[in-house]
Amino acid sequence: MKSFFIKVIIITSVFISLLALWRPAVSLALMNSESYINWMDSLNFGGEETSTSTNYKFKDTLGEIGTGRISSTNYAGLIGFRQSEADPKMTFAISDTLINFGTLSPSAVSSDSITITTTTNAVDGYVTTIEETENLKTSGGADINDVSDGSVTAGSEEYGIRTSGSAGQMNGADTAIITSSQTVASYGSWINGSAVTITFKAAISTTTAAGVYTHNVTLISTGRF
Hints:
Elements: E1 4-17, E2 31-32, E3 37-38, E4 46-52, E5 57-62, E6 68-71, E7 76-79, E8 90-94, E9 98-102, E10 110-120, E11 126-132, E12 158-164, E13 182-187, E14 191-203, E15 211-224
Parallel strand pairs: 1-15
Antiparallel strand pairs: 1-9, 2-3, 4-5, 6-7, 8-10, 10-14, 11-13, 11-15, 12-14
């Protein structure tokens, strides 16, 4: 049996993209003076700033007019006093940063997995992408072929990933990792604890060169505020 050790190092980062709506210099609805400008006018007949108990703090308005979420191809907006108040928040966690296939054999597919978990209050959710620095290869330049038929198969030289979880975007087939960004997870609204498992798979043939195969993979998660 040929000796293989395959290592994939996962590099992670989080980017928060804020959608800024253009604000006009003059507006009939704009409250301002020499000392202030109020960008969050609202029409209502009451509300409470200090509702609290042991377990919560709550701010509310009564009778707000024309509130809610509006959007088009190029923008998204939250209308109303409380709609405009939430601070953008996002967390992204990864269960491990090292994939280790150990010793590979032509008779079996080797796999290892990580779980990525995202929480955000972004109105349009989030998107997580994956990309590689280069093919999975040895220091001498031998590489393992990217999977191209949707399934990493024992006895064939192939390498790829598959996702699982409701937000996974590669759930239906084993997919090659490439040097440009591909969406690996996505959700279209605010979400608490969106978990996606990414399973890495590798297989070799009897003619695959022996050696230690490595490469770096980057995961980038972006909030769509």
